[in-house]
Amino acid sequence: MPKIIVEVMPKADLLDPAGKAVANALQRKGNAEISNVRIGKRIELHYAHTPTEADLAAAKQIAADFLSNGVIEDVVNVTVEN
Amino acid sequence: MPKIIVEVMPKADLLDPAGKAVANALQRKGNAEISNVRIGKRIELHYAHTPTEADLAAAKQIAADFLSNGVIEDVVNVTVEN
User: Which fold has domain B3-81?
Assistant: First the structure.
């Protein structure tokens, strides 16, 4: 199944309480080398055909307009995966 | 900031109602070529140092045991990003 993968993360300035809770739990369990955890979204767009350059450009637009909230989130990656 | 990225997706057999809702909305907006959407998680583990092979192995274990629910989710990728 050809896919375009959109990766969305909370902005760096923003507190991520769920990520912080996971980081604290990992440190309590003895993973001292993990200094922080942030939790974002990985969204798969499925296509019937191999995505073209136009599909990728459209997906980047969709990622910015529709799949992320620009006030609190950054789109970090939009990539084709066949 | 060196990171290990853990990607977790709902299992393929599983209904993903949020993804389905996004797919329907995109199709209504005229993106007929997107047949389906699935929404998973992208988790960043931050390290003070460049992650070693041992860190990557530990992260894979953490991803399977702690960051994903094996009943409903698959860990699709665990990768180092410097």
Answer: Mth169; Chain: A , (3.30.1280)
* C-alpha count within 13 angstroms, C-beta hemisphere, residue A42: 23
- pLDDT (tens digit per residue) in B20-52: 999 999 999 999 999 999 999 999 999 999 999
Residue spans of the domains in chain A: they are 3-81
Question: Could you say which of B26, B43, B44 has the minimum Cβ distance to residue A62?
Answer: B26
Asked if the Cβ–Cβ distance from A44 to B8 is below 8 Å, we say no
CB contact at 8 A, A40 and A74 = no
Among the partner residues B9, B55, B58, nearest to A42 by beta-carbon distance: B9
From chain B, the residues in CB contact with A49 under 8 A are 33
3-state secondary structure of A47: strand
